[in-house]
Specification:
The structure holds two protein chains of two kinds. By secondary structure, chain A is α/β, with parallel strands linked by helices. Chain A contains 19 helices and 15 strands. About 2% of the residues of chain A have low confidence. By secondary structure, chain B is α+β, with helices and mostly antiparallel strands. Among the domains of chain B are: 189 residues, PAS domain (Beta-Lactamase, 2-Layer Sandwich), CATH 3.30.450; 75 residues, Arc Repressor Mutant, subunit A, CATH 1.10.10. Classes of the chains: A alpha/beta, B alpha+beta.
């Protein structure tokens, strides 16, 4: 009987082992191609355009995703501002907000609002050499307390986009050149001249008016938010703010909501300072109120700086974030991220979307126009400018701190309201220094 | 029974099973093989009988039933969704009709007067804005628009293809849309978008182009006061310059007298559809689709696709899928791979025309095959389990009935003569013991000296020796008489003298010693008689 029991136990163990092997498919990973794991993915790349990220996701799903058992499912596609609030609401579990996606693209302000401790550390998900291959400053930008919570996928800077069809005519008649647009002194002079030349039209628009104050103050070696508060005591801040206020109250600056791209395609402004990634969103024509059109050809320049300040270029960009979840989902996210940032996939993606690559080796490649994936005139122009910025400007990373998002929103809204009110009040007349002082005082009162 | 016995037994068993050599198989092995064969036949017969009576679930039927249930659920979901959207579209058209009629009446103008009249167009767009915005927020869709039968500048070359109007879209599509969502301004006068502080879509244009919109003229022709009979669902269209593909619900807008004012519509883009129509399907890697079917080709590029609530989404390529029958199901072959599923015709609108819409559900063929194999594996495992249990029973039966016999034999050969629990075997042992007793020397044989006996043999005369030798060879008295041509009386007289000389009292005793002599001789011969001969 003892022998019988031994044999029975042996047979049972062999059967279970065989069954186990059959079910696991003899695999060494938590991922299983026969039972793929799905990752919901929210991103911001090409929301209102032919999204290159959607194409990449499709390619991944049909190749490596299929082999490794990972399905990436884009369930939201928007811009980073629009995406911030649903993400925060989902993280806080607000009613009707739904669940956080398995993987998403976010700016530091979103990550800091949600809480960096809720995210997986990419350093533990990716190979060490993969992390080392990124531009070190990008890794630093995506790290919080030594944990890499925002994996750089694409980085951006800002640039000045100029409607060359109109500017060339204006410049020829009024004696300006593109070099004048390299400094703020030249920009404001050109804006004033253009206002007169065009019969009262705005010259330029800035996508994020806070950046104007932040970057320019940083170019003088000062911080806009020392200790998390606005640096109203800085004479330099007062100087650069009042210079903008003067142009805005005089009508030289476009104060419409939305992106500079919109102002340029409706003819409301001929210059826009915005992310280099805006290249993806430009149409090839300007549409006027009578439904007539004009071709829109772009010249792209570095963002102006004050002539006595340092030439800085903002470095920004969202990162790929993975909220902590199951081992399987985190592993799947790592497979996707690893694939996404390989040079053969990352470089075509960033160049189609107008971004900067994230790996050190890729920067040498973009110096050669032959390596531009879609060498349209706009793309060639953009990457010439990117190289010019890299050679002549210092990249500067804006600070992020708790409450930054709210402060940024309030700064921009209040400044716009104030500018709009004073523009109406001034009605095209010269703006005296006393009015500028009053504006600054009023703005300080509102912000403090 | 020890380990060696068990191993030897199974070696013999396997030898029989696989080498077809049953010469050395024990009686127990033979019994077990017979029982096992009987069990297998019974199990097979039971399976066969149950299967033929339809009492066993068919593996293929199970998958088919599952997919039919998924198709029913998906179709119901789709029916309800498209029905509600159509209702919202028709309602929007009625409200827009009221708003436009009032505004035109205020300006004492017709819709034709709005062309080349930017002020009137602006007033009309402003008037319809709130209806559009409210519908977009309340309807289950990703965008809403109104095309007016007018253009701001009829002097332009393509003015006949240009229509004024407003088009709003959700800025951020997700599963749970906010109560007050951000909207994108896609079409419309700049002042309208600016006034309502909308972000302009990057592909914003002042007016719609109806260059590729044959349905505009069709709807204009077929428009009738009963709007429920003249709305239309378009095959998938692409918003140029973007990733967005969408299906549109189009409803004509008529004034109180039936005059055509334009058309309005609701947009369901691919992302919105994917989220809104995600299936609760239990089936993994499920794909649901609304698309047109053309004979044996399914055209995914004409419709939209959704996956499961768990997040699975196949991403079917738009190229046509070839359909072929696959048992009770269909096999869909495409650039995205092959799928197994079903489709069923569905009517989406009264003006479907040549579009034969179907709702389809399927899973990858790879998964289908895997499921099927797993089901077969389960049946096989069940069969193997039953067979294994049967084998265990056979083994037990073999031990229960054969072991006592073997124990009895062991007991008999070892001389223990223990009794077993089985009377038949005990009887057999008793019988065999008796037979053995018979072969033993009689108890009345005097214990004489075998050496003396052997020495006395030399005293026999030649004739007596001849008779004695034949006794030694095992011949009987009559046989010896025949062989030596002697009478029985002569043999008897020889016997008397032989008994006397050899000092035995009966023929039994004589034969006993004779046998002993024979055995002794054989022993000597086999253990080196040659050497003895050599010495001699």
């Amino acid at each position: 009987m003892v022998m019988f029991r031994r044999v029975f136990t042996l047979l049972l163990l062999v059967s279970l082992s065989l069954l186990g092997l059959n079910l696991s498919g003899c695999r060494d990973s938590v991922l299983d191609p026969d039972d793929p794991v799905s990752l919901s993915f929210w991103h911001v790349y090409g929301a209102q355009a032919d999204s290159p990220m959607n194409s990449l996701v499709r390619e991944f799903n049909q190749t490596v995703g299929q082999e490794r058992g990972v399905v990436v499912n884009v369930t939201s596609l928007s811009n980073s501002t629009a995406m911030h609030f649903p993400l925060v609401a989902a993280a806080k579990g607000e009613p009707g907000a739904g669940l956080l996606p398995d993987i998403f693209v976010a700016y530091p302000k979103t990550v800091l609002t949600i809480g960096p401790e809720r995210f997986a550390d990419w350093k533990s998900l990716l190979k060490e050499e993969t992390v080392r291959s990124y531009v070190p400053s990008f890794v630093e930008e995506g790290s919080v307390d030594g944990r890499l919570v925002m994996l750089p996928v694409a980085k951006s800077s800002s640039a000045l986009f100029v409607n060359s069809v109109i500017f060339d005519r204006f410049a020829e008649e009024k004696g300006f050149s593109y070099d004048d647009l390299l400094t703020w002194e030249g920009m404001f002079r050109a804006a004033e001249a253009y206002y007169e030349w065009s019969g009262g039209k705005a010259f330029f628009k800035y996508d994020d008016w806070l950046h104007y104050s932040m970057v320019n103050l940083a170019s003088y070696g000062e911080e806009l938010f020392p200790g998390g508060r606005l640096n109203f005591d800085s004479p330099q801040f007062a100087k650069i703010w009042k210079r903008l206020a003067k142009a805005a109250a005089s009508g030289h600056v476009c104060l419409l909501d939305g992106y500079s791209t919109t102002a340029m395609m409706t003819g409301e402004a001929i210059c826009g300072i915005e992310s280099v990634a805006s290249i993806l969103y430009f149409k090839d024509r300007v549409t006027f109120p009578d439904n007539t059109h004009m071709p829109l050809r772009l010249r792209i320049l570095p963002v102006p700086h004050f002539s006595d300040g340092e030439a800085l270029a903002i470095q920004r960009g969202s990162g790929l974030c993975v909220p902590r979840s199951t081992e399987k989902k985190e592993k799947a996210a790592a497979v996707f991220a690893e694939w996404l940032t390989e040079e053969e996939h990352n470089l075509p993606f960033v160049m189609t979307a107008g971004y900067l690559p994230v790996k050190s080796a890729a920067y040498e490649r973009i110096r050669d126009p032959k390596n531009i994936v879609s060498p349209t005139p706009n793309a060639v122009e953009l990457y010439n400018t990117v190289n010019r910025i890299r050679d002549n400007y210092r990249f500067w990373v804006p600070p992020y701190f708790d409450g930054y998002g709210e402060l940024e929103k309030k700064f921009c809204e209040e400044q716009m309201k104030l500018f709009a009110r004073y523009r109406e009040a001034c009605a095209g007349k010269p703006v005296p220094q006393s009015v500028l002082d009053a504006m600054f005082k009023e703005f300080r009162a509102v912000m403090e | 029974m020890g380990d060696r016995g068990f191993v030897a037994y199974h070696k013999a068993l396997f030898s029989v099973l696989f080498r077809r050599d049953n010469r050395h198989l024990s009686i127990r092995g033979r019994l077990q093989i017979s029982l096992l064969a009987l069990s297998a036949v019974l199990i097979f017969s039971t399976f066969f009988l149950l299967a033929s009576l339809g009492m066993l679930p068919s593996v293929q039927n199970d998958v088919e039933k599952h997919l039919i249930a998924e198709l029913d659920a998906y179709e119901q979901h789709l029916h309800s969704y498209f029905g509600n959207t159509a209702g919202m579209g028709v309602n929007m058209s009625r409200r827009l009709s009221d708003e436009l009629s009032h505004e035109l009446a205020l300006h004492k103008a017709s819709i034709a007067d709005a062309s080349d009249n930017p002020k009137l167009l602006l007033a009309l767009e402003e008037r319809i804005y709130s209806v559009l915005q409210n519908t977009l927020i309340s309807a289950d869709c990703s965008g809403a628009f109104v095309m007016l039968d007018a253009t701001v500048n009829s002097s332009l070359p393509d003015a006949h293809l240009s229509r004024a109007g407003v088009y709003l879209k959700l800025a951020n599509i997700s599963k749970h849309n906010a109560i007050d969502p951000d909207l994108l301004f896609v079409r419309g006068m700049h002042e309208v978008g600016t006034k309502h502080k909308h972000i302009f879509h990057n592909k914003w244009e002042l007016e719609f182009s109806i260059q590729r919109w044959d349905m505009y003229e069709e709807l204009k022709k077929k428009a009738q006061p009963d709007l429920t009979k003249c709305y239309m669902v378009t095959p998938r269209v692409h918003l140029q310059g973007t990733w967005e593909t969408m299906m549109l619900f189009l409803v004509p807008i008529l004034d109180g007298r039936g005059g055509f004012l334009g058309l309005c519509g609701l947009e369901i883009n691919s992302l919105y559809y994917k989220l809104a129509l995600s299936s609760h399907a239990f089936t993994k890697q499920f794909t649901g689709l609304i698309a047109c079917r053309d004979g044996d080709r399914l055209l995914p590029g004409t419709g939209l696709e959704s996956g499961t609530l768990h997040g699975y989404f196949a991403g079917i390529q738009p190229s046509p899928m070839q359909i072929e029958r696959y048992g009770g199901l269909n096999r869909y072959e495409s650039a995205s791979g092959s799928f197994i599923g079903l489709d069923r015709a569905i009517a989406l609108s009264p003006l479907d025309g040549a579009n034969r819409w179907v709702t389809a559900v399927f899973i990858p063929e790879k998964l289908y095959s895997f499921n099927l194999h797993m089901q077969y594996l389960k049946v096989f495992a069940l069969f193997a389990c039953v067979l294994f249990i049967a084998y265990l029973f056979c083994y037990r039966i073999g031990r229960r009935y054969i072991d006592p016999i073997l124990d009895g034999i062991d007991s008999f050969t070892s001389g223990a003569s223990e009794r077993t629990a089985i009377p038949e075997i005990d009887d057999l042992i008793v019988y065999l013991s008796r037979e053995e007793q018979k072969k033993r020397p009689p108890e009345d044989i005097p214990p004489i000296d075998f050496k003396t006996f052997s020495a006395n043999v030399e005293l026999l005369s030649k004739a007596e020796r001849a008779v004695f030798d034949l006794y030694m060879k095992g011949l009987s008295a009559p046989d010896i008489a025949n062989q030596l041509c002697l009478s029985m009386n002569t043999i008897k007289s020889h016997n008397k003298r032989i008994y006397k000389k050899l000092n035995v009292s009966s023929r039994k005793e004589l034969l006993f010693f004779a046998k002993m002599m024979t055995l002794a001789r054989e022993d000597m011969e086999s253990s080196g008689g040659g050497t003895q001969e050599g010495k001699a």
